[in-house]
Amino acid sequence: MLQIENLKVEIEGREILKGITLSVKKGEIHAIMGPNGSGKSTLASVLAGKNFGEITGGKITYMGRNLLEMEAEDRAKEGIFLGFQYPIEIPGVSMVNFMKTAVNEHRKYRGEEPLSSSDFLKLMREKKELVKIESGLTNRSVNEGFSGGEKKRNEIFQMAMLEPKLAILDETDSGLDIDALKIVANGVNELKTPENAAIVITHYQRLLDYIIPDVVHVLYDGRIVKTGGKDLAVELEKLGYDWIKKGDDTVKYG
Amino acid sequence: MDKKTQTIKRFSKLFTDNSSRIENNSAGLINSYRGDAMKQFVELGIPDRKNESYRYTNLDPWFNADYKSYFVPGEEDFKAAENFECEVADLNSYDLVLLNGIPPRYNGTLDGLPEGIWVGSLVEAAEKYPDLVARHYGRYAQNGKDGLIPLNTALASDGIFVYIERGVTLTNPVQIINLVHSDRDMFVQHRNLIVVEDEAKLPMIVCDHALSPQKFLTNAVTEVYVGENAHFDILRVQNEHNNAAKLTHTFIHQEKNSYAVSNNITLHGGLIRNSTYHRLNGEGAGSNALGLYLTDRWQHVDNFVSIDHASPNCTSNQLFKGVLDDFATGAFNGRILVNREAQKTLAYQKNNTILLTDDARMDTKPQLEIYADDVKCSHGATVGQLDEDAMFYLRSRGINKDEARLMLMFGFAREVIEKISTEALKIRIDDLVLKRLRGELSRCATCSINCDK
Q1: Is the pLDDT of residue B442 over 70?
Q2: B439 interface with A at CB cutoff 8 Å
Q3: Number of domains in chain A
Q4: Is A72 an interface residue toward B (CB < 8 Å)?
Q5: CA of B336, closest CA in chain A: separation in Å?
Q6: Best to test chain A binding among B393, B400, B409 (most A CBs inside 10 Å)
Q7: What Rg do the C-alpha atoms of chain A give, in angstroms?
Q8: What would the mean pLDDT of B109-113 be, rounded to a whole number?
């Protein structure tokens, strides 16, 4: 589904990603872990098509297409979804209008008729149930005045509405208490099918108790320094990131 | 002789040449103000950019043009004008069409109005309600520095008069459809007076339109008296063309515990200058001065607001937002004057503008003069671009760039629209603003003007 080959990204002259190679097949969940400042969020944003920094090397192929040549909105319509670490507040734009526009843009892209208002509201009700999002929230402006947990749940709600092929969840667990974390993880698991894939970016192992990854990567200083199975996350939790920072390679896994 | 003196001379001559015609079409009481007003105008002249409150607006090209300056429309003109369909007309409202500033002579009030309210010509009102007009006319339009006001007093022959009796509450708005139409370039002046007695409630809409592509310059003065515990709400929608200039001066005088809202929504016009004055004359009065401007090409829009806190315990709020595209320019000047006796004043002001191009320009200036010590005032202004992070957020959900821009601009404008009190009107304005932002304002679709846009 997704192949990243030797991807290099510079921001304001500083190299943030220094040659990332990663391959995600359908049906897989990949976790990307790493300390702050290692380049996790940069990778997520580059995949979603944010115009920042400069791609200085490498390539990304998604479903056989050159991803880097696609606009952000086209990537979304081809099934890429980014769950934001810091969802943006947009005053004056209602959640309903936002989601209706997004859903219908996706439908148009697939050559389908736009949803009628009643079908759309029905779809919203179903999906809201999944993430236990209160009705009140969808009547408000996008993320405006939402708590941290509500914003993250709203990301999963949007993901449920758009049914992506590849979901990239950037620190979706940060700022969540354990109950909210379970709701978010449950949402992700419910949406998982053998046909889609997910990249879960996290700082802590905690989320991976609920979302079981097939592959775990450790990103440090712009490079993937370790790749392993789900046990790698447990090791990391135990030992912290310091042993990676020191370049200690004696710990074996998988 | 400098330009300013030349313009004064021209208007003096216009006054001398036409005063008998004007007076014959007006009322004695109104005529009695003309001589002194002309003297004051000769002293002040047309405001130039040395005048602090006109610093960003150049009126010169509009006043140094040749206009057919005087016009009394005939019955046929009104028939033609009434065929015009205003974008917000299909809500339940009491509509009055004003053609080139002149209301039709209905010989009485507008049809279908409930008891206790009179809407019609000011000249007629001066005869029908002489005491009432005498008590209020010329009392509130006071600005010793702006020559456009005495110019209006000297030359305007008529305008509208709205009177709502004590305790009468009107739910559906009175709508003034303000049309300019001529086969020659025209300078239009009209003078309006609105009296809202104690405990009464009056919502109003004014729609400004130009029906022919000629050059128009309108200088309109409106005086409003809002009595104790009364409510007054005026929404002005300006949708003319690039060859039309509109200068409005609205003076709202508010008594004890009254509440007044003024909202200027500017969608299109060559030059727009709205001067809005709220005088909080009685204790406990509240005002909300709002504005939204969405202009492009070479249009210029200038909002001047003056809130005069003359009594204690009053609250005022100013909220002006705009989106400027292409080479459009804008100015905002928000004055808050808190007099020494106006303790416990709450006064807020906010002006936010989005510039869509590097060539668009906005000048914004707060002007706070506070002479009382126990007050709470705040002001803030921003001029910027659309939020890039918000753009990316929308696009990352599959919404294309143009649609995302539109959603953000509309969301930005929404804060002003949300404050419109009549729900039906809010929906209409939403629709109108959205069309304007999409560049498909149906004005062009239904309009009979063969302009080249």
Answers
A1: no
A2: no
A3: 1
A4: yes
A5: 27
A6: B393
A7: 18
A8: 80
- Which residues in chain B have Cβ-Cβ distances shorter than 8 Å to A70? none
| pLDDT score of B448 more than 70 | no
Domain assignment present for residue A88? The answer is yes
Establish if A73 belongs to a structural domain.
Answer: yes
A88 and chain B: CB distance < 8 Å anywhere? yes
Token readout for B152 is 């209006």
pLDDT tens-digit profile of A25-66? 999 999 999 888 899 999 999 999 998 789 999 999 999 999
pLDDT at B453: 44
Residues in A 201-240 with any Cβ partner in B closer than 8 A: none
* A93 with B393: Cβ contact below 8 A: no
For the complex shown, is ipTM > 0.90?
A: yes
Domain CATH code at residue A112? 3.40.50.300
Query: Tell me, what DSSP letter sits at residue A116?
Result: P
Cα dist from B188 to B11, B84, B135, B300, whole Å: 13, 19, 26, 19
Smallest CA–CA distance from B413 into chain A, residue: A92
Whether the CB-CB separation of B241 and B211 falls below 8 Å is answered with: no
The DSSP 8-state label assigned to residue B59 in this structure reads -
User: Which of A45, A50, A71 is best to mutate for the B interface (most B CBs within 10 A)?
Assistant: A50
Is residue B34 within a helix (H) or strand (E), and if so which, with residue range?
helix B34-44
- Residue B273 pairs in a beta bridge with B247, B302
Residue A15 Cα distances to A8, A36, A38, A67, B45, angstroms:
7, 15, 11, 21, 64
Domain-located, residue A40: yes
Chain A CB contacts of B396 under 8 Å are 48-50, 72-73, 75-76, 81-82, 84
CA-wise closest residue to B232 among B304, B301, B313, B286: B286
What is the pTM assigned to this prediction? 0.88
* Residue B331 amino acid letter: A
Q: Sheet of A14-24: strands edge to edge?
A: A14-24, A2-11, A54-62, A65-66
B411·A102 Cβ contact <8 A? no
Q: Do A93 and B411 touch (CB under 8 A)?
A: yes
**Interface membership of B399 toward A (CB under 8 Å):** yes
pLDDT-derived band of residue A205, with 50, 70 and 90 as boundaries? confident
- Interface A–B counts its CB contacts (< 8 A) at 82
Q: What is the pLDDT of residue A252?
A: 42
Residue B131: band (very low, low, confident or very high) from pLDDT cuts 50, 70, 90: very high
> Cβ contact (<8 Å) for B411 and A72?
no
Mean predicted lDDT score pLDDT of chain B: 90
* Domains of chain B, residue spans: 3-385+420-446
Per residue in B72-95, pLDDT tens? 666 666 776 777 766 665 678 888
Q: Are the Cβ atoms of A76 and B396 closer than 8 angstroms?
A: yes
Residue A251 included in any domain: no
Q: For A143-187, how does the pLDDT look when each residue is reduced to its tens digit (9 = 90+)?
A: 999 988 889 989 999 999 999 999 999 998 887 888 888 888 888
In which domain, by residue range, is A144 found?
2-245
B240-251 pLDDT tens trace: 888 999 999 999
